[in-house]
Specification:
There is one protein chain. This protein is of the alpha+beta class. The chain folds into four domains: 4-65, Ubiquitin-like (UB roll) (Roll); 70-242, Threonyl-trna Synthetase, Chain A, domain 2 (Threonyl-tRNA Synthetase, Chain A, domain 2); 270-299 and 333-531, BirA Bifunctional Protein, domain 2; 537-645, Rossmann fold, CATH 3.40.50. 36% of the residues lie in helices and 27% in strands. Strands 15, 19, 20, 21, 22, 23, 24, 25 and 28 form a nine-stranded mixed β-sheet that branches. Strands 5, 6, 7, 11 and 12 form a five-stranded antiparallel β-sheet that branches. Helix 5 (145-154) packs antiparallel against helix 6 (158-166) and helix 8 crosses helix 16 (520-531).
């Protein structure tokens, strides 16, 4: 065989007299690299290939090591196999099905008459550690399809047989570790000892291939990391996430609730509505600053509108339909088609562009029952939605203004960490490739001109155009997609939108869809978890709780309540005949920013004791000083209490 050349990321070349595997290339570079190799990426693809894969001449290879983010995916895949092996070593009659890698871990589905319990997880985990300690070499074999069917049928692995029979391949991959083997495409690590830290998390029910008419399976969720420290940090964050669950916080703080009579549509209490409206007020102030005009559009439209916009053909499975006077109507899932009608209602000149309109209209989208989750996945919601109609030349300025707008809002809310993703054309889309090329390059050029770092998210754009997705990273390092900006060259075409240019001829505008908070429902859920329910002072439903020691201070407290309200503060007086300690504990559970405790000493001195929700207390505070500082904190939307700075 002639020389085979493999190109490395630094453009250096390794030569071989045969098609080398990824591992062989790593060995030619150094033993340390070879020891840590778990896979490879070739020719710029993000897909990870198995380290045993032979490489062709001219292949550009990036070696994936176990300490990398990509390597962790391979380790988790192999850990799923170790879990399945451990289960079958303990209970040989249990059948295995599939075990994929998921966000932050992996799972494996098992078919067994024996129900798994929490105690079983400890037994399985102990056996897994034994398998890992054996450092079993993991080998890949390719079997003819018929051999694989007969082999798995012979050991009563009926689910594997069904998978193989459905494969449109004559040869299938099988991985062995010791005496145990499994059907798999890979990739996998070199030996079981490369798994450094593993933890089984929970047991759940599942159906074979997600079909409720098929066999009931048992799913074990687990995770694996490169070292025990990373695992402990993850487990700590899991516990923290449970404490921060917005569904629990929403109930504890009396902000919202759900009712089975209207699934996926939350009820906001007076306190929850107050937070909701404060967020809208923030956006409305910014709209004024950034040149947006607010509009109101109908809730129900003739489906002809959605044929024109492309939603019916590309999005109808997410829409609600009804019939009125023998005409088909739909409740609006998005504001954009209605905004196109507003734009088209009057002739536009280039002097009127950019034309920015915002809409807090309620939207309805069908979500399957199994995916709904508190406020973060609902069927009825409102977005801080807006659309910008502009010329191609104005796009870069509009994107720059959008990122500045977003940065200011996130800074006000204490959300400093976020990433930008450029999501490109999906398989299901409308418009020509030429239009998509134009839209994608416009976004890329704008980001590069603004020197904004971003990652490409292939195939995740909207059906009408590519988009920038803003991925907010919360206090415990979880990513959430909130803000978005989408470049749409298709909908202006569908609605025949025009403007008269300075050359007196008609031109087509570009349509930018944008949101910063996204769905207000989803945002509230995410923000409650980010802050652990400790909302900043300006967003807190009750900002001040006045707590008396005895009834003797009632008159003083009522006068103080009046002064707080005159200063625009949301205050309450807890005049119940309960002990002060009890009232303080309740106010702290409600995460009230300031508790003003009033006893005889405070009445006599005309002062208050200011107790913060972190437990700190400032004694003998002049009332006018407190009102001044609290009022300023409220109006300026400060994130931190001025009393903490003293």
């Amino acid at each position: 065989m002639s020389e085979i050349k493999i190109v490395l990321p630094d453009n250096s070349v390794k030569e071989f007299d045969h098609r080398p595997t990824v591992l062989e290339v790593a060995q030619s570079i150094g033993e340390g690299l070879a020891k840590n190799t778990v896979g490879g990426q070739i020719n710029g693809s993000k897909e990870i290939i198995d380290l045993r894969t032979p490489l062709d001449d001219g292949t550009q290879l990036s070696i994936v090591t176990q300490n990398s983010e990509e390597g962790l995916e391979v380790i988790r895949h192999s850990a799923a196999h170790v879990m399945a092996q451990a289960v079958q070593e303990i209970w040989p009659d249990i059948q295995v099905t599939i075990g994929p890698v998921i966000d932050n871990g992996f799972y494996y589905d098992f078919h067994s008459d024996k129900p798994f319990h929490e105690d079983d997880l400890k037994v399985i985990e102990k056996k897994m550690k034994e398998v890992i300690k054996r450092k079993l070499p993991i080998l890949r074999e390719e079997w003819p399809k018929q051999k694989a069917i007969e082999t798995f049928k012979g050991i009563n692995e009926n689910f594997k047989v069904e998978i193989i029979e459905d494969l449109n391949e004559e040869v299938v991959g099988v991985y062995t570790q010791g005496d145990w083997f499994d059907l798999c495409r890979g990739p996998h690590i070199q030996h079981t000892g490369q798994i450094k830290a593993v933890k089984l998390l929970s047991v759940a029910g599942a159906y074979w291939r997600g079909d409720e008419t098929k066999e009931q399976l048992q799913r074990i969720y687990a995770t694996a990391f490169n070292d025990k420290k990373e695992l402990q940090e993850y487990l700590h964050n899991l516990e923290e996430a449970k404490k921060r669950d917005h569904r629990k916080l929403g109930k504890d703080l009396k902000l919202f609730f759900m009712n089975p009579l209207t699934p996926g549509a939350p009820f906001f209490t007076p306190k929850g509505a107050l937070v909701y409206n404060q967020l809208q007020n923030l956006m409305r102030e910014k709209y004024e600053e950034y040149g947006y005009e607010e509009v109101i559009t109908p809730q129900i439209f003739d489906v002809d509108l959605y044929h024109q916009s492309g939603h019916y053909e590309n999005y109808r499975e997410n829409m609600y339909f009804t019939k009125i006077d023998d005409r088909d109507f739909s409740v609006k899932p998005m504001n954009c088609p209605g905004h196109c009608l507003i734009y088209a209602s009057e002739r536009k000149s280039y002097r009127q562009l950019p034309y920015r309109i915002a809409d807090f209209g309620r939207l309805h989208r069908y979500e399957r029952s199994g995916v709904m989750h508190g406020l973060t996945r609902v069927r009825s919601f409102v977005q801080d939605d807006a659309h910008i109609f502009c010329t191609l030349e104005q796009m870069q300025n509009e994107i720059q203004a959008f990122m500045k707008f977003l940065g200011e809002v996130y800074s006000t809310l204490g959300m400093p960490e976020y990433k930008i993703y450029l999501s490109t054309r999906p398989e299901k889309r409308m418009g020509s490739d030429e239009i998509w090329d134009k839209a994608e390059s416009s976004l890329k050029d704008a980001l590069q001109a603004l020197d904004l770092p971003y990652e490409v998210n292939e195939g995740d754009g909207a059906f009408y155009g590519p988009k920038l997705d803003i991925m907010f990273v919360d206090a415990i390092k979880r990513p959430w997609q909130l803000g978005t900006l989408q470049a749409d060259f298709n909908m202006p075409e569908n609605f025949d939108l025009k403007y008269v240019g300075d050359d007196n001829s008609e031109h087509r505008p570009v349509m930018l869809h944008r949101a910063i908070l996204g769905s207000l429902e989803r945002f509230m859920g995410v923000y409650l978890e980010h802050t652990a329910g400790h909302l900043p002072f300006w967003l807190s439903p009750v900002q001040v709780k006045i707590l008396n020691v005895t009834d003797r201070q009632n008159e003083f407290c009522l006068e103080l309540l009046k002064k707080c309200k005159e200063h625009g503060l949301r205050a309450e007086f807890d005049d119940r005949s309960e002990k002060l300690g009890y009232k303080i504990r309740e106010a702290q559970l409600e995460k009230t920013p300031y508790m003003l405790t009033i006893g005889d000493k405070e009445v006599e001195a005309n002062t208050v004791s200011v107790r913060l929700r972190n437990g700190d207390t400032k004694y003998g505070v002049d009332i006018s000083e407190f009102l001044k500082k609290a009022s300023e904190e409220n109006q300026m939307r400060k994130l931190h209490s001025p009393w903490l700075e003293q």
